[in-house]
Amino acid sequence: MSEPLLQVDDLHKTFDRGGRRVRALAGVSLDLARGETLAVVGASGGGKSTLARVILRLVEPDRGRVLFSGRDWLGLGGAALRRERRRLQMVFQDPLAAFNPRATIGQILTDPLAIHRLAATADPADAVVGLLARVGLSADLAARLPHELSGGQRQRVAIARALACEPDLIVLDEPVSALDVSVRAQILNLLHRVQVETGVAYLLISHDLAVVRAMAPRLAVIDQGTIVEAGATATILTSPGSLAAQALIDATPRLIVSPPAPPATPTPDGERKP
Ligand SMILES: Nc1ncnc2c1ncn2[C@@H]1O[C@H](COP(=O)(O)OP(=O)(O)OP(=O)(O)O)[C@@H](O)[C@H]1O
Ligand SMILES: [Mg+2]
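Structure tokens for the assembled complex are given below, as produced in the milestone run.
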């Protein structure tokens, strides 16, 4: 019944860098339920992005297992992987790097539809307009190129592209750290609203404790490739049990951590205001 959506079990990954071995993951385990948001925080180089990349199957681990809906995710190949891959999407810090610079926003949003044949019956142009509306963007943006959008608009397109695949899980690797503070709140509200509407789960990778506090009830702290502490975000941020968590809190301005978290209230069209 309550089988986790994602189970990560004892992942190990060592990179070879100029003859030197760099241990990025040294036995990482975690669980994520359907519709849940789990944050993974930790200092730079701790292994956060490597963990994300293994889950997204961009990097092969040396050892360990990943189960997705109870199935061996790393063992999937061929047609089964092509069929299942849409269920796991990603939004990265800099969508400009992930978009084809010569493709219009409409094309960028239609690609996943075509690949996953979700819009087999619908008109792709209608699907694009619908996706843009879901992330608070107007239809006329479909004709633009990625560099003709603001950072916040681009991140909305990245979210729309993920949504086109109707995923069960979106891995968010520093999704708002490249954005201005005011835009940041809008994107966090959008992510929250999308989760309420679709029941998608988020694995949120961030070094920003204010973001984590607003988004994720549960938190895992990663340090030198291992999870050193995991539990309720509020508990860990008020009484950290690891040096790594304490160091992150110490590095955060007090004003941001101390007051109660601003509830991520999804104003239905709050993000659409200019
Ligand atoms: N492709 C690679 N080749 C060699 N070393 C790598 C590679 N990818 C990551 N590493 C190393 O693995 C370790 C973990 O890196 P990772 O990018 O996962 O950290 P991170 O927690 O995401 O850091 P940041 O907060 O700076 O993004 C680091 O020491 C990094 O230099
Ligand atoms: Mg990283």
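The first strand starts at residue 6 and ends at 17. The mean pLDDT is 89. Further analysis is deferred to the final report.
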